[in-house]
Each structure stands twice: as C-alpha cells, then as structure tokens.
TrEMBL record:
Keywords: Leucine-rich repeat, Repeat. Gene3D superfamilies: Ribonuclease Inhibitor (3.80.10.10). It comes from Seriola dumerili. The lineage of its organism: Eukaryota, Metazoa, Chordata, Craniata, Vertebrata. It comes from the Eukaryota. Residues 1-26 are annotated as: Disordered. This is U2A'/phosphoprotein 32 family A C-terminal domain-containing protein. InterPro entries: LRR_dom_sf (IPR032675). Residues 1-24 have a biased composition (Polar residues). The keyword GTP-binding does not apply.
Amino acid sequence: MSESSSGVNTLSGSFPKSHSSQCSDRGVTRTPLFVDHSPDSGLVSTPLPSNRFRFVSWHRLEHCDVTGDQLTCPRVREGPSEEELFQREGDDCCLERGRRRRREEEGQRWDERLQENWENCLELNLSYQDLGDPFQKENFLRILRRLIRVEKLQLVDNSLTNLSSVRLPRCRILNLHRNHLVCLRQLPKLPAVEHLCLSENAIGSLGGLGTLENSPLRSLNLTHNPVTFTQDYRAHVFSCLPKLEVLDGIPKLPEDSLPTRLQFPETTRMCNIL
C-alpha cells in the first residue's frame, strides 16, 4: 500500500470492494456511512454529509472527521460551477453572485489542485466514482492525465467510454472491469502495461489491438465482451500479441498457435450459439 501526499489511499494485489451509503433528503444534514469493518479494510465508521455535498470532491468535505487515508475509493468528482448551476435554474441574480464568487475562488482552486499531487501516486484506486455529470467526467479525465508515475490503477465500474486522450507511461496493471468501452482504440496509451483487465465492457471487435503489440503485455482479460464470440478469437489475439501468456484467465494452449486467417476480415463473423 502506498499513499500520495494528498492522503489518497491506494490498494494493490486485489480488486476494489464496493461500499454503499444511505442517502438522505435535503433536510437531513448528516447520515451514517456504511463501511467495511473487516480487519484489513482500514476503514472506520464516520458520519458523512449526504445530498448537499453530491458535487464536492472528497478532499473538500467540511465538518467531517474522515481523512483521505480512510477511504478505499476516494471521490474525485468535481461538480458544475455555481455559474453553470444558476444558468440551469435561470436565476439572473444568483448568476451574478456566482460569477463574483467564481472570480474570488479561482486562485484557491488552483492551489487545491496543486495540493492533490496526483503526479506522485504509484498505486491508486479510483473505482465506483458515479460520474453522472459532464463536469465530473471532465475532472476525472484531468486527474488521469496527471498520473504520470502510477504503476497500478483500478478504474472499476466508472461508466468510462473513451480514454484515448490519456497516457499512462508507467502503468503496469490496469483494471477497467465493468465500463462502457466499445473499441480497443478507446484505451489509454499504455507503453508499459503487463496486466490488463477489460472484462464486462462492450468491445465487439479486435480492431486496435495492434496498439498493444509493442507493450510487454503478459495477461489480458476480455471475458463477457461480444468479441469473445468471434471466429478464431484466441488465435487472432495471440498472433497480434506475441508476448501474451494468459488470455481470459487461460494460459496459451498449443491450438492457439495453429495457422489461421491472421488478417482481420472486413466484417467480423460471429459464432451462433443454439
């Protein structure tokens, strides 16, 4: 386990666990947070603010005793600015007030981003972020672009659709289980990746697999993707990735090296399961 200077708790060697919290109405200012009390969880019971803080990043929570190193999956979401929120509501008076406050907080926001210090993270778990607003997705991608030293990264169940603008130069282990990727070209740049999990996405073809050809990729997981039903699926993958040792949890078999039509056809043929 390693920790960045921002207090982000990071995990290695296992997939993240999902933690749920009880939601409350606007009238309730504090609700208990359900957390894992297992000996290895490192978490404690802490009352957290609920609905009124839904757009607040984890490191900006006020009136709360919880610290970053007590969070398994720290929230990095950044909600809409007050100006944008007031524009949605159509309140001109509040809009002007939001503009003044935004100008006052610009310097403070820049200082907070420097304090996050994502550049020094080596192992990071940013799963289950519930990125429901475009502002949150934009902020999330901004953080991913700053992970220039991360080696192990968990991004499970974040509804991610396109990470092609992200480069992770030192990432060796990347877990993108249960997202919304439909093409391998939507992956980030991964020149050093060794273990890549893409299970439970919507990847329908092997187009773009060649971008991983020069990487030291040893294991790849594409289970529960439509592409696994294409003809000669395993043979195609191993032919494009000569360094690959394990595919979908199964080591390379002798029949995976049999000569096949190695060129990708213009239209992908699917196997019919009766």
